[in-house]
UniProtKB/TrEMBL annotation:
Superkingdom, taxonomy of origin: Bacteria
Protein's name in the database: ROK family protein
Family membership: Belongs to the ROK (NagC/XylR) family.
Length: 309
């Protein structure tokens, strides 16, 4: 039987699972509905059957790594933040779940940090030990690697809250309770609110949409919609401001930008690079700016790497 690690990336919409061998190679993957309205213990029990089916008496499981979208205690494998999905997640005994069903060790890490580890070992960050990774889209996630070590901090929030860095102390209230966070200007969840704040927004083709995403913003802007152009510019400026703050704080050799929105990287990367060169304390080209390589399975590869090391 081939020895493998199982990585689980628990998104709010989908759960990605992958088997990874000792060389860091993906041997198989599966995508499942998140069912994130369920409690975490119930969803995990449902996953037992799926995991056993994937292993199928062909693989020997050495450990399980979980990437979770929230603040986690990496040392004790506890979820700390009350996430809007996966109710009661913070009360779940993940170690017991892994031991009871497969008698294997478990590693839990924040999804942004897990993705950073995947990029460091197998993607855009390979060969660089000082990295900042930012993911753009629904919100703005971040993670930091300094001298080859993940930055976590006493309360496990260090480097993780780039989207909740305040860039306008007189701005809108964020869903986190802070004022003027990056996400209040640059996130999917804030787009409808920001659209309705604009004068004559009903003249925009965006106003006919039931839900708005960044695919719509970039598409409608490219067709000349002035309101869409304003929303795009506002988001780009917010991301740039947040990223400059993170660059000043952590001074990495490389900035990796990921997220589904990077399908528009031809517009996003040059804009951010221009703002960094104009407004940061870094020397020109003081940081390399690039896109993520492991766009789909970085989190799985990252937690499996943590399991092995």
């Amino acid at each position: 039987m081939e020895e493998v690690y199982l990585g689980i990336d628990m998104g709010g919409t989908q759960i990605k699972m992958g088997l990874v061998n000792g060389m860091g190679e993906l041997l198989g993957t599966e995508m499942l509905p998140a069912k994130s309205d369920l409690s975490m213990p119930v969803r995990l029990e449902e996953l037992v059957e799926d995991i056993n089916r994937i292993l199928h008496d062909k693989f020997k499981l050495l450990g399980i790594g979980i990437a979770f979208p929230g603040i986690v205690d990496y040392i004790n494998n506890r979820i700390l933040s009350k996430y809007v999905k996966y109710t009661d997640a913070e009360n779940t005994d993940l170690n017991s779940w892994a031991k009871k069903n497969w008698n294997v060790p478990l590693v839990l890490e924040n999804d942004a940090r897990a993705a950073l580890m995947g990029e460091w070992q197998y993607g855009a960050g390979k060969g660089n030990d000082n990295l900042l990774m930012v993911t753009l889209g629904t919100g703005m996630g971040s993670a930091v690697l300094i001298e080859g070590k993940l930055l976590r901090g006493k309360n496990f929030i260090a480097g993780n809250l780039g989207g909740h860095m305040s860039i306008d102390f007189e701005g809108d209230k964020c869903n986190c309770g802070n004022i003027g966070c990056v996400e209040t200007a640059g996130s999917t969840w804030a787009l409808s609110h920001n659209l309705k704040k604009l004068h004559n927004y009903k003249n925009s083709s965006l106003s006919a949409l039931t839900t708005i995403g960044y695919k719509d913003i970039f598409s409608h802007a490219s067709k000349g919609d002035e309101i869409a152009k304003k929303l795009k510019k506002r988001s780009l400026e917010a991301w740039s401001a947040g990223i400059i703050n993170l660059l000043h704080a952590y001074d990495p050799e490389k900035l990796i930008i990921g997220g589904g929105i990077m399908k528009s990287k031809s517009e996003i990367i040059p804009f951010i690079r221009k703002r960094v060169n104009e407004r940061s304390w870094l020397p020109e080209d003081g940081v390399m700016i690039t896109t993520a390589n492991q766009t789909k399975y970085a989190g799985i590869l990252g937690v499996c790497f943590l399991l092995k090391n």
